[in-house]
Write a structure and sequence with these properties.
single chain; 139 residues; mainly beta; three-stranded antiparallel beta sheet; 7 strands
Amino acid sequence: MSRISVFSAPFLLGFDAFEERVDRLSKSADGYPPYNIERMVDAEGTERFLISIAVAGFAASELDVVAEDNTIVVRGKQKDDPGKEFLHRGIAARQFQRSFLLADGMIVKDATLGHGMLVVAVERPRTPKIARRIEIRSV
């Protein structure tokens, strides 16, 4: 059975790559680690987003944030210390990968780690609406 996509409408040109990214993100979505996304708009109309990811137990050296191809990928990888002996182990050394799809024109500003929270700041500057007349040529 083939799947019908909203992006296959004849007036939506060039959205096939976007659809592939959305499919990839939906397949990789799990619940770990939990996260929040805050949105703020300043007086000039610039939107700011703060992606807060709960990464308690991870050091900055065990985290990686990469912005590439309109996607933010956050990876965490903890190493087991074979020299430790646990009587009880309720906190596993767990790795994760979490992806966020960005719209065109969004800028990843920075990432900070504090109090067990990794916060990635993303900004979408206000862009002026541009209209231009297209010359019609005769062939």
